[in-house]
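Handout, section B. The chain below has 139 residues.
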Amino acid sequence: MIASLLRTFLVFGLVGPLVGLICVAIQDPAGLAFSPSLLLALALFAYTFGLVPALITGLVAWTMRYRLRRYLGAPVCGAVGMLAASVFLAPTPYTAQSLTEGLQVAMLPGGVAGFACGLLYFWPPNNSCMDSSVKQSLP
């Protein structure tokens, strides 16, 4: 049980902030000149502000792992990721300026990252992160 929770946190904690960073980088119309130092700084920023919402999304996915199938698990993870990112980043001054900037910085990357991690997590339908003893006992 603890091992499956740790695997869930590993999937959501590693993949989620990177997908959110890619989503933010795609939204930049001017394009970023990716130097190694800028890439390192952006990855640090992504993990600083994206790790907690990703772990919250992973916790919800782990609790719902036997109740949701893939076609429903991924959108639920996307919605939870969007909500967790917006609540976690709400106190920052950048998102307080306007709703559209809040959508671009928090909600959209959190939703896309949650959806992508949900697709990875719920990949085998109804068998996500199950132990082998649980898989054998299910009909």
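Note. The mean pLDDT is 81. Compare this with the example in section A.
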